[in-house]
């Protein structure tokens, strides 16, 4: 077992390296990088409207303001009609590290990432680690509750469908589940907003945020109710599209086990159907379902929640990544890609090891030799 884990950990190194190379090249090829973003802020933009830029950026803007008197008007706005000083462009490139060749920038970045030194955000000037830690609770909260709700609904429903295979209940529930899964989560979120968040019908739930403005003044139970009041629509939108795959997986897994010889033997011994189902079939059928929990959770947190966080203005990792891409905040984009890629690989290993915890008969050493 230990040798298998070591091999898997060593295999993560080239896998993660490949992920970072591909993402680095794709993002570098995208137009409108940090330097272009800064230039866009300078041209035709008030110098006073650059408060979100980090300190070094403000210094450069101040220097540019002092050396561009011909390009200013009485309101202190730089029109950029005469263009920018090439020396100033070089200063911007040096500030963002773009004065070095592409391979050198990648090697430096990976060297820093190996030490978990993700640097500072280009837009806010704050350490990227602090931003990730600050946003992580929202995404974890969404992922945990969505995963819990999905399994609480899909496992009993899948078992019921397996027991009633081919009946009208099985057919109608399959139609409903597949129909709901065909609706994208973000579309269902918009529908929920229109119906229940003051769109056109009811105004029962808040439109944005994870807590109310008076959160600090609420009692303990008031905070709990307020939290779930805000989380209701996002959780419904995220859960509704996860039913089909897990429900059908549970059903098929149970059907496969129900037709096994040991089930026939248990029934021949006079055991009740409930005892056969939950005393013998359940454990074996749940192997593949339970082992998928880590992968399901990580998928919900780092992929499925992004659009929901954007639609409901939930300040989590999805919204952070979206804003980083829009603002070309490369430090945040690359750091989150590295962190999520590493975490995803580790979760994959945990998912495989979960098989052994559920069924000790599985021997990874035997499989790998």
TrEMBL record:
Broad class of the protein's primary localization: membrane
ABC transmembrane type-1 domain ranges (all copies): 136-351
Entry-linked Gene3D superfamilies: MetI-like (1.10.3720.10)
Listed name of the protein: Microcin C ABC transporter permease YejB
Signal peptide: none
Subcellular location: Cell membrane
PROSITE patterns: ABC_TM1
Keyword terms, alphabetized: Cell membrane, Membrane, Transmembrane, Transmembrane helix, Transport
SUPFAM superfamilies referenced in this protein's UniProt entry, alphabetically: MetI-like
Bilayer-crossing regions: 9-30, 142-163, 175-207, 227-249, 285-312, 332-358
Gene name of the encoded protein: yejB
Membrane topology per record: Multi-pass membrane protein
One Pfam entry name: BPD_transp_1
Organism of provenance: Dongia sedimenti
Family: Belongs to the binding-protein-dependent transport system permease family.
Record InterPro entries: MetI-like, MetI-like_sf
């Amino acid at each position: 077992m230990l040798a298998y884990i070591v091999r898997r950990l060593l295999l993560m190194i080239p896998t993660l390296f490949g992920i970072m190379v591909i993402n680095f090249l794709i993002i570098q090829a995208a137009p409108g990088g940090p330097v272009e973003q800064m230039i866009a802020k300078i041209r035709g933009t008030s110098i006073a409207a650059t408060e979100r830029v980090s300190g070094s950026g403000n210094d450069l803007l101040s220097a540019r303001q002092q050396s561009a008197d011909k390009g200013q008007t009485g309101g202190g706005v730089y029109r950029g009609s005469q263009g920018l000083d090439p020396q100033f462009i070089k200063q911007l490139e040096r500030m963002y590290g773009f004065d070095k060749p592409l391979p050198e920038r990648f090697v430096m970045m990976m060297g820093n990432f190996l030490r978990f030194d993700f640097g500072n955000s280009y837009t806010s000037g704050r350490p990227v680690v602090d931003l990730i830690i600050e946003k992580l609770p929202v995404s974890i909260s969404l992922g945990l509750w969505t995963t819990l709700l999905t399994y609480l609904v899909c496992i009993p429903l899948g078992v019921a469908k397996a027991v009633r295979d081919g009946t009208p209940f099985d057919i109608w529930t399959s139609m409903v589940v597949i129909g709901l899964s065909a609706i994208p989560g973000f579309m269902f979120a918009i529908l929920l907003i229109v119906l229940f968040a003051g769109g056109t019908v009811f105004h029962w739930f808040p439109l944005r945020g994870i807590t109310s403005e008076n959160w600090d003044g609420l009692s303990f139970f008031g905070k709990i109710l307020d939290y779930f009041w805000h989380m209701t629509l996002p959780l419904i939108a995220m859960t509704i599209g996860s039913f089909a795959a897990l429900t059908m997986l549970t059903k098929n897994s149970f059907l496969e086990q129900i037709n096994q010889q040991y089930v026939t033997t248990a029934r021949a011994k006079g055991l009740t159907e409930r005892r056969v189902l939950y005393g013998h079939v359940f454990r074996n059928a749940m192997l593949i379902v339970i082992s998928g929990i880590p992968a399901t959770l990580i998928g919900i947190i780092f992929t499925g929640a992004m659009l929901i966080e954007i639609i409901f203005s939930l300040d989590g990792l999805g919204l952070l990544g979206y804003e980083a891409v829009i603002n070309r905040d490369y430090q945040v984009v690359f750091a989150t890609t590295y962190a999520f890629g590493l975490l995803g690989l580790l979760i994959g290993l945990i998912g495989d090891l979960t098989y052994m915890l559920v069924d000790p008969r599985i021997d990874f050493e035997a499989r790998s030799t």
